[in-house]
């Protein structure tokens, strides 16, 4: 469960944001829609405390992230928040499997190779586990990115424009996978996007 209250943020005195309060229960999903420049990425980064809000709160499963120290925030995020970035970021010298296991390492958890194999099978990239990530297509990398976000069975999945560079068929596939995977682990799924095609795939929507 994730809830925010009265979140505000400023890049400068002339560039400040007040965001609407949002709430997303476990196993539920929320779409946050906005045109370019409305602050979608900023909002997503505030939800993960990658940016520190000027005021307001972000509560995940009863922990108010804004009360934690930077080290506590990093540890909480690694264990409880899975992030699917707009463009996947991988360690290119590592295999796909090792990039997945890195999520365990960063969360100070034991390597979960079976979980990685299970996700690879569900998301359809089992045959690529031994490859380097740059040997995969963009669509395949996107699926690895989703798998990596699910590795620690987080309470919250945050996805930033996960479909912007995909055709209709692949966009539908990625959204179905995000819904399916987050429901399997009982996570709250929050997607920020300008992609109006996604409207029908979410009952809960907020406009920025
Ligand atoms: N580090 C920064 N310093 C100053 N201004 C910034 C910074 N990052 C973003 N902004 C500004 O804040 C506004 C919101 O940016 P943000 O990236 O959150 O928008 P967005 O809705 O995700 O846009 P897009 O859909 O184009 O990615 C933009 O006007 C942007 O120029």
TrEMBL record:
Q: Which domain of life is it from?
A: Bacteria
Q: Which UniProt keywords apply?
A: ATP-binding, Nucleotide-binding
What are the GO MF terms of this UniProt record?
ATP binding
Annotated source species: Fibrella forsythiae
Which SUPFAM superfamilies does the UniProt entry name for this protein?
P-loop containing nucleoside triphosphate hydrolases (SSF52540)
| Domain ABC transporter span(s) in chain numbering | 2-208
PANTHER family attached to this UniProt entry: ATP-BINDING COMPONENT OF ABC TRANSPORTER-RELATED (PTHR24220:SF611), IMPORT ATP-BINDING PROTEIN (PTHR24220)
Q: Which InterPro entries match?
A: AAA+_ATPase, ABC_transporter-like_ATP-bd, ABC_transporter-like_CS, ABC_transpr_LolD-like, P-loop_NTPase, Sigma_54_int_dom_ATP-bd_1
Any idea what this protein is called?
A: ATP-binding cassette domain-containing protein
């Amino acid at each position: 469960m994730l809830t925010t209250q009265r979140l505000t943020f400023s890049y400068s005195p002339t560039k400040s944001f007040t965001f609407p309060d949002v709430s997303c229960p476990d196993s539920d999903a929320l779409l946050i829609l906005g045109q370019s420049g409305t602050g979608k990425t900023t909002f997503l980064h505030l939800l993960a405390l990658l940016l520190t809000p000027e005021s307001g709160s972000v509560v995940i499963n009863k922990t108010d992230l804004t009360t934690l120290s930077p080290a506590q925030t990093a540890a909480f995020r690694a264990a409880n928040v899975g992030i699917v970035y707009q463009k996947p970021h991988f360690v290119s010298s590592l295999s796909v499997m090792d990039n997945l296991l890195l999520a365990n390492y960063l969360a100070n958890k034991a390597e979960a190779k079976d979980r990685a194999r299970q996700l690879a099978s569900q998301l359809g990239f089992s045959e690529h586990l031994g490859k380097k990530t740059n040997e995969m297509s963009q669509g395949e990398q996107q699926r690895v990115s989703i798998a990596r976000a699910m590795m620690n069975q987080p309470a919250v999945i945050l996805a930033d424009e996960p479909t912007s560079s995909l055709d209709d068929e692949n966009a539908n596939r990625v959204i179905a996978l995000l819904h399916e995977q987050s429901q399997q682990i009982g996570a709250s799924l929050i997607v920020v996007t300008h992609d109006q095609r996604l409207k029908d795939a979410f009952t809960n929507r907020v406009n920025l």
